[in-house]
Amino acid sequence: MALTEDILLKIAKLEKETGVKRTLFAACPNSIAAIKASFRSAKRNNAPIKFAATLNQVDGDRGYTGLNQQEFMDLLKLEAEAVNFTGPYIAAIDHGGPWLKDIQTQERWDTERAMAAVKKSFEDAILAGYHLIHVDPTVDIFLAKDEIIDIHVVVARTVELIKHIEDFIKKYNLAPISYEVGTEEVHGGLADDETFETFLIELKKGLKSVGLEHVWPIFIVGKVGTDLHTTTFDRDVAKQLADKVRKYGSYIKGHYTDDVVNPEDYPLSGIGAANVGPEFTISEYDALIELEEKELKLYKEKRIAKLSNIKNTLWKLVDESNRWKKWLQPDEIGKTLFELHDERKNWIVKTSCRYIWQNAEAIASRQQLYDNLNKNGIDAEAIVLGKIEHNMDKYFRAFNLINLNDLL
């Protein structure tokens, strides 16, 4: 049995015995610090953890984390060992589909090339030892601006990608993996109840037609009230979706869980797992700026020789990357970063820092900051990790995961 199914099966058994509902916590590994913090938090809470890595973050080109799939898995192993974390952890591809990797959209790759690249990414992930793949062909850059992709096209491409994975696993006699399908985005066409049901029915038919009736996704992504700009989880809608997919043997997966105001409602609604990501980039940024304030105080006291200039460095690198532009709203398009009003400008910089953490200039500036503080008796990295961990801890609590490793 694949690892994810095994954990969820045990959680379901425990629920029958104790009445306690649980939701798996999936952290987005958008920085090395986030990965370290994830294991430290999981260790402290004695709970399993899932890593949901997008192809922008981890891929054959090393993404913006600087890691390919094998390096990512090796790092997870090393960081788990560093804190003696012996519980289970799940490594997954998040949003694996054509044009969901920025370069494919920017360079307008044709369908054949984009699908081939995704398949290669899947192969590399499987060989590296990933446990789950989110198959998400819900974007088509060649559609008109307001056109929604046909649900039958989504199904056909989902089946094509799953079949490719299963054929690859069979060819090389590899361990089974789990699947996640669908998207929370409106562009995926799964936003209304009827289309959602159609997707499930047609997917089952499609898999059976290629001899894969024994294969079925453990997670279906559901639109549960949260998105990039909202933080209220819709408990009632989520429960309806969760009940619907349980008939198929699946769980609803929540995305955009960052800063959600009612995380405790996820397990109560029967949500199987939930992703959190950009929130931790913001935590990391805030911690660095907090440390820079201490650094400036020490500099005025002549206790350090050279400032790190971390804030200015991060802002410059984010601006130069141009990747922040993907977060612009319609009325902001065409403006420079510094022409945006303060609240938007700050949010965009904070969330876009994930793209430049591994830039050589950012690494050097961070190291200067850490060295300056460490020489004055301040463990700078521990403070940064602690800030991220603090925000992770609340999800372990809200999702009823504390000490779950003892029960698995």
Report on this structure.
The protein has 408 residues and is α/β, with parallel strands linked by helices. Helix content is 50%, strand content 9%. It has an eight-stranded parallel β-barrel with strand order 1-2-3-4-5-6-7-8, surrounded by seven helices. Helix 2 links the parallel strand 1 (24-27) and strand 2 (49-54). The longest helix is centred in the last third of the chain and has 23 residues, at 278-300. It is globular, with a radius of gyration of 21 Å. The model has no long low-confidence stretch (mean pLDDT 94).
SSE diagram, text form:
Elements: H1 3-18, E1 24-27, H2 32-45, E2 49-54, H3 69-82, E3 89-96, H4 102-106, H5 111-128, E4 132-135, H6 151-172, E5 178-181, H7 193-209, E6 219-221, H8 235-246, E7 251-254, H9 265-268, E8 273-276, H10 278-300, H11 310-321, H12 342-352, H13 360-374, H14 380-398
Parallel strand pairs: 1-2, 1-8, 2-3, 3-4, 4-5, 5-6, 6-7, 7-8
Helix pairs in contact: 2-14, 3-5, 5-6, 6-7, 10-12, 10-13, 10-14, 11-13
**Count of individual helical segments:** 14
Strand content: 5-15%
Helix residue percentage: 40-55%
What is the average per-residue confidence, as pLDDT, rounded to a whole number? 94
Structural class of the helices, strands and pairings?
alpha/beta
Assembly state: single chain
Largest sheet entry:
8 strands, parallel, barrel
